[in-house]
Amino acid sequence: ARVVFVLPAFEVRAGQRLPGSKAELLGLWGTGAARPFYGALCPRCQAPTDFGRWRALPGPPRLRVAYEAPWRDPWEPFYVAPARGVPPFDERFLQYGFNRISQACELHVAGFRFAVLDGAFVAHRGFKEPGGFHGGREAELSHNRRLFRSFRAELQQRYPSSPRHC
Questions:
Q1: 3-state secondary structure the chain
Q2: Which of 16, 48, 99, 164 supports an S-S bond with 75, CB 3.0-4.6 Å?
Q3: How crowded is residue 110: how many other Cβ atoms within 10 Å of its Cβ?
């Protein structure tokens, strides 16, 4: 059972109370006070979660696996996983960029499946907007982009029998 459990991730407008249930979240989403995480910055970084499908699940929500989502680059899922057996986070990815992408990529190459949960989600307080990052973000992103290219090559060596790649 090589599976990680994906928690759909959302942003909630600053000043709004964070939702305590899926019903509250859906209400905020309906009014524009919540949206999928990175909705304005990198929609494709969360797209494989398939928020439309998650939103349309029949209620009432309960903690369960709703569906599996196929891995696609550049997915950055938020997930829970067993304490053992999951590849460790590569600590070379410091600061901004490619940290969650590299982790999800390795999970995929290592043969893990991604199961999206219903009845659970994570929420970030405040909308992530362009220009809302610290000054060194672009340099960090550039450094980590170069690191990610070599990281992918390392995965081929680490998992030589895997038919999967990033």
A1: CCEEEEECEEEECCCCCCCCCHHHHHHHHHHCCEEECCCCCCHHHCHHHCHHHHHCCCCCCCCEEEEECCCCCCCCCEEECCCCCCCCCCCCCCCCCCHHHHHHHHHHHCCCEEEEEECCCEEEECCCCCCCCCCCHHHHHHHHHHHHHHHHHHHHHHCCCCCCCC
A2: 48
A3: 16
Which two tokens mark 92?
A: 């070379």
Length of the chain: 166
